Protein 1
Amino acid sequence: MDERFRLRVAPCNKYPVRRKGAFVLYWMTAFRRTHWNFGLERAVMWASELKKPLLILEALRCDYPWASDRFHRFIIDGMAENESALKGRSAAYYPYIEHGKGEGKGLLEALSDKAAVVVTDDYPAFFLPRMVSSAAQRIPVLMEKVDSNGLIPMRAGDKVFPTAYAFRRFLQKSLPHFLKFFPAGDPLDAEGFPSRAEIPDFILKRWPRTDFHAFAGDSKAFRNLPLDHGVKPVARPGGEREASRLLKIFLENGLADYPEKRREPQEQGTSGLSPFLHFGHVSSHGIFLQVAQTEEWFFDRLSSRAIGSKSNWWGMSEGAEAFLDQLVTWRELGFNMCFNKTGFEGYESLPPWAIATLEAHSKDERPYLYGLDILEKGQTHDALWNAAQKQLVHEGTIHNYLRMLWGKKILQWSPDPRSALSVMIELNNKYALDGRDPNSYSGIFWVLGRYDRPWGPERPVFGKVRYMSSENTARKVPVRDYIKKFKGDNAVA
Ligand SMILES: Cc1cc2nc3c(=O)[nH]c(=O)nc-3n(C[C@H](O)[C@H](O)[C@H](O)COP(=O)(O)OP(=O)(O)OC[C@H]3O[C@@H](n4cnc5c(N)ncnc54)[C@H](O)[C@@H]3O)c2cc1C
């Protein structure tokens, strides 16, 4: 197999390719984009090899956990853009949005009945791994899943890395090889296959192709979807175009000051790309290439010293190195965990030292005790925390630095660490556009000690787990305007 795909492609079932199939089917589930996508590229490769047309199915069910107007709107924006991007191209695009729970059942099987081979995305978190593996058993034709998550294939690291430092060392040894094997910017450029797959009428009749005009804005069709309507869409649209716009602004105005400004809640010092990365509207390969271009970077600038250092490895500016440390080291560390550790979202997956110290302090008296209801409404005694929670509820994000504080306070104010974990998962995944992601679990579990080390002095509730307080945070970073901005009484209805 082509070296680019060797560690990225895995069969999901044992069925053969059906050479008489009518088309190659790409079932787009996680990498919802037409560029820098190994999955789409693999499907194009099959279509060219088998001389079959290519059909891209992008479906949206309405019964996924935490399904809400916010996430649906963002995904639908991206789907509408994919439809325009694929107009006039040789691959056929078939968007399908369920109107009611379970309505989409049977669509994949019906299409697969006509397919020569099915290619899908390999994403290691949320309900996607279960969905893909159960679908593969029902499809009597070869189905492959393709990993287009990050610069390093998930299968390249066959163990869990306990710290960012250990993972960075591994990356610095392994990444130079994988930097030679990028996906194609526009996979459909290699159009060596017949155009326009025909979708059988009985399929289109039962599962009509989505008309995006019907779902625009606050339309009736959108309002009638069985979703959590309390979690409202945010102002920012989803899709590849908005991701490119944000990246351009960040590279022009934010990269140089990223190391300092990323910590300041009053500044937009970070890229804001995490929701787009989460929904697959942008790829880390595409982002990396643009950073490299901005930096006029060449491969031979990479340091040969794999010592786990955060800086002076890429041979780029300080801002670019700091940004890539988040985008590559920290982000892909989370994918490494989800891919290699069963139960990564369970309390028991914490390092033993963290469990021991949290348990030793689980009966300590809490300075304040809050349940999910008060926390969700941002009605605690702590103005900074309430502001962070309100930003999460209204904007679907929390400033990066305050997100750490947000989690630490939930630990301090919950009856025990397990309850804190479930509250963090619930609030993060319900409201954050970038939630339900490997990074969600990295961040939430970091609050409880994952990827960290024991800290002294040992404190009530936290034990040896790193402590943060609103007072210290306010001393370190300016927060007055941030509190003012999110103080308004536009809290959860
Ligand atoms: C309690 C808690 C919960 C979190 N939940 C999520 C979540 O649900 N989804 C999510 O993507 N991130 C989460 N993070 C990590 C981090 O807060 C976000 O990735 C970051 O704020 C996203 O903003 P940005 O895209 O502007 O980041 P930038 O600073 O512009 O960074 C670029 C990219 O690097 C990655 N990145 C940045 N910081 C981190 C980090 N600390 N850990 C892992 N990857 C990082 C993200 O993919 C990000 O988009 C969480 C952190 C904490 C402490």
Note: The beta strands are 9-11, 23-28, 54-60, 92-97, 115-121, 143-146.
Protein 2
Amino acid sequence: MIDLHCHILPGVDDGPSDIYESIYMAHHAIEDGIHTIVATPHALGGTYPNPRQKIIKDVAALRERFLSEKIPLSLYPGSEVHICPDMAKRILAGEAAFLDENEHYILIEFPFQSIPPGFKNELFQLKLNRVTPIIAHPERNPMIHHEQGVLYDLVTMGCLIQVTSTSLTGGFGEDTMICAQKLLSLRLAHTIASDAHSAAQRPPSLSLAVEVATDILKDKGKALEMVDNRPKDILAGKPVDPPVAIRPEKKKRFFFF
Ligand SMILES: [Fe+2]
């Protein structure tokens, strides 16, 4: 399996604090069946700016360490872009690390509380420039628990959606789990990633989530696609062919006179 969203670099964000924890995380990933990880530290806006060149350099150093310790895990540079003013412009200027060498895919953190005005337009600017935004863990935003229409619009625009494995398995609470599972059933989720931050509390695990996805999709091949072939194509910068999304039902509004 391929994990496209993982905070495994030591000392760069709220992920592992030292190299030893990064190595524990790598062993955990391998035991879970993960052979490839894209290191995606927080980047651009927010607390951890992490410029692209720094991420590339840190990934090279951790790769060397894996090699010297004979840890069979492939590691690639990426980032998780925090929303900020001029986000699209800064991404297109090369400030953040893409998920692929061809610079066609960028991981963008979905806001946790609200959806800022202008967010959709920033994503549209990226699409206009042949960059596909992959929206990370929208199921963790309570606004999305009640209304998934905005995600349908983003997917129709050409964005991809990534859900967190722990959301699917219930680790972030029932509302988040129900929402993540609903996104799968509406075909509004395209990849599953760990968003791991540590060796103990939030380790890199995908296998349990694949079992849940298999139950929802009634097809193990389709569930595996979300952690295998689709992430592989993204990593290679190839186009992906997502399933046709189902438009979520609009919430009924009641008026009292
Ligand atoms: Fe993350």
Note: Residues 5, 7, 80, 195 surround fe (ii) ion (CB under 6 Å).
